[in-house]
Amino acid sequence: MNTRLPIIDQLINADGDRARIDVLMQCPDAVLLKHQNTFLQAFRLFEPGAYFVLLRTNAMRAVRSSTGALPEGLAAELEALRVELVAFAAGAEIRARDGPAPLDL
Could you report how far apart the first and last alpha carbons of the chain are, in Å? Predict the structure, then answer.
């Protein structure tokens, strides 16, 4: 009997990075936070996916402003990468980034 959550099975059995991103975008925050290492392992060969997992889980842990907002830089970076990954899942290519890689797994 399989005791894993269905969304974790979907992640593990996904046919490529585009399908894994689709699962990631649908994942509830509580599941992503609890299973962060599983998601990082699934994206170990796709750096933008792993970076998004780290950004999103860091956002969940971040201290908010007095109005409940995320730190401005984190919110903007998370949203920009989310938009890019959604486009990637739909068939677009990931744009090359200037400067050093944001993540060294």
Answer: 32
